[in-house]
Amino acid sequence: MENLYSAPRVHAPAHNHTHATPTASVGRNGKYVVVELSGDNAFLPSRCVKCNEIGVKKSKKMYWLSPGYLFLILVGILVYAIVYYAARQKVMLHYTVCQTHREKKVTLGLLGLASFLAAFVAVVLQWGLIALLCFTAFLVFSIWASRYFGIHKVKGNRVWLFGAGPAFLQHLPPVS
Length: 176
What we know:
Layout: E1 26-29, E2 32-36, E3 41-48, E4 56-64, H1 72-75, H2 77-87, E5 89-97, H3 99-124, H4 128-146, E6 150-155, E7 158-162, H5 166-170
Parallel strand pairs: 3-5
Antiparallel strand pairs: 1-2, 2-7, 4-5, 6-7
């Protein structure tokens, strides 16, 4: 008899998440990594995107909307939000990051959290200027930590990504 109080079980096939597909091509165009999409997936080589060392594989869902839609903010933020969710393009980015750069990102996130807590304490103690400086530091660290890799543009079945390190870009073939 089956235990009715046990956790549910999922019977899903095991996925082999490799970061190289035979059909996907990866290259560089200046400071951008150009990746050919395989469906909604963009696969990068199994090397750290910052320093080209061996690392841990990661996946991240990213969205892109043409900057031409930004004028809709003038019409109204609600109109922009509706168009954003309707017209955005989703890309599931599969990339690799080494231990050093992963720790750097975590450190930036922790610095952002610490500066937010310091801003909160400064507000409670009514230290206005210090609160403003700490909150500014929070914004800088948080944005810096979150923008590890980003989409510059999507055109057809190709994605242009920014944020790759020179060592990673150097080992990619040039594309137009």
